[in-house]
Amino acid sequence: AAVLCRRILAEAPGHFYALFMLGSIEAQAGHAAEAERLLSRALAVNPQSAEALTVHGDVLSTLNRHADAVATLNRALKLQPDNPNALIYRGIALAQLGRNAEALSDFDALLKRDPRSVFALHNRANILLALGRTKEAESEIARLLALAPDFVPGIANRVTLLLREKRFEHALAESARALRLNASDPALWNLNAQALSGLLR
Asked: How far apart are CA 72 and CA 90, in angstroms?
């Protein structure tokens, strides 16, 4: 797909869909700087594309340009108020800026439309944990894992809560389960080590 987009752009450098699609492909490949360049060009051609604004906002967050991401996602949501991805990405960017109340509002808005949104539940739980609202976070994590039992970031959050409560055996079992699902995440090994340390192992 990327090869085809580049062929089109060689013939028509201002082709919106080729710029947008190639930018999206580069974003998925983890090439955020190149994705941002392509998506900026696409939006110069068509600044009213909610889809391109949404992807651009996500890429800006990846580049730690969170204020720019919020501004871009505001534009996307003005054009498309029910855009679930734009709500998620804006909530994440707002949280990175420390604007937790606004971030929670975005996740709440999405959960009203889709109570089964794993990403909204997960990010809402992250904010509640950061705010020290442990009981609410525990409830969100339980809802999330009831929907997606093998969602590793949710399991990691449960381990974090168990460690805070000094329930080390349970934390060890949960961290071991998470590592069986994703053994390449260093944060999970860290949680596993904390549980072992709590057990004096």
From this structure: 9
The DSSP 8-state label assigned to residue 77 in this structure reads: H
CA torsion, ordered 82, 86, 88, 93, to nearest 10 deg: -140
- Encode pLDDT of 36-47 as tens digits: 999 999 999 999
* Rg for the chain, CA atoms, rounded: 20
**Other CB atoms closer than 10 Å to residue 8's CB: what's the count?**
16
Tokens of 80: 């498309």
Instruction: Report pLDDT digits (tens) over 6-54.
Output: 999 999 999 999 999 999 999 999 999 999 999 999 999 999 999 999 9
Provide the token pair at 62. Answer: 């990846």
Amino acid identity of 79? L
89 touches 69 (CB < 8 A): yes
Ramachandran assignment for 15, one of left (phi > 0), alpha (psi -120 to 50 degrees), beta (any other): beta
Q: Over the stretch 130-163, which tens digit does the pLDDT of each residue have?
A: 888 999 999 999 999 999 999 999 999 999 999 9
> Residue 130: its pLDDT value, please?
87
- Measured CA to CA, the distance from residue 146 to residue 143 in angstroms comes to 5
